[in-house]
Every structure is written in structure tokens, then in C-alpha cells.
Amino acid sequence: SKTILHKQDTLLKGAHITLRDLPIRLLNVKKALFEQLKSDLNREALRVIVKQKEALAGLASTMELLKPNRTMARGFSIVRMNGVAIRDAKSVKTGDILNIELHKGQIETVVK
Q: Which of 6, 14, 37, 61 gives a 20 to 30 Å CA spacing to 105?
């Protein structure tokens, strides 16, 4: 009877220790998982930021190439009548005064 009580006491103490330590072990597992998820999230956020930064740099480069001054430096000009860019030769008639904007300077001309 004493042996049975001793065995049950030992089992009870073991169960008590297990129950006492279980929340701490579970908390440590959850904490490790949380830290891993936090690390993954930070890494993914950084990857997205780098990708967006590269895309923005590409757009900025494209915008730089499309600036009117860059286009005019390659030999193109902007022809305006009354401050409005001419897009169609049919909108101009004899006697109209045109302003031609070049890379370096402007020319005013009369349509003949």
C-alpha cells in the first residue's frame, strides 16, 4: 500500500511538473514562431520596397528621356501657334504666325 502510494505520489509530482512547465514550453514555441514570422515579414517588406524602388527608378529614367528638352536636343522642335502646340498641318493656314521652339532658342515664322 505504501509502495502504491509512493508510485502515485511520484506520478502526481511528474504530472504536476509537466503541467507547470507546459505553458512555458508552449509559450517558448509560440515565441520562436512569432520571431520567425516577424523575420519573414520584414524580409518580404524589404524585398517589396527594393522592387518598388527599382520600378520607380525605371519610371524616372523613362520620364527623363521623354522630357521635351531631351527630345529637342536630338533635333526635334515644338511648333506652336498662339501658345498651343500644332499637331496637324491642316490646322495651319497661310499668314499664320508660328513659334518654333528648338533645343537652343526660338524662331518666329509666318506660314506662306
A: 61
Residue 6 CA to residue 112 CA, distance in Å, equals 120
Sheet strands side by side (includes 97-102):
84-85, 78-81, 97-102, 105-110
Surface-to-core class of residue 80, CB atoms within 10 Å of its CB (0-12 exposed, 13-18 middle, 19+ buried)? middle
Give the bridge partners for 102, in sequence order: 105
* SS3 state of residue 102: strand
Strand duo 84-85 + 78-81: pairing: antiparallel
Asked whether the beta carbons of 103 and 73 are under 8 A apart, the reply is: yes
What residues contact 99, with CB distance under 8 A and at least 6 apart? 79, 80, 81, 106, 107, 108
Predicted structure pTM score: 0.51
Residue-range domain boundaries for the chain: 1-66, 76-112
Task: Give the Å distances, CA to CA, from 97 to 25, 77, 92, 105.
Answer: 86, 16, 9, 17
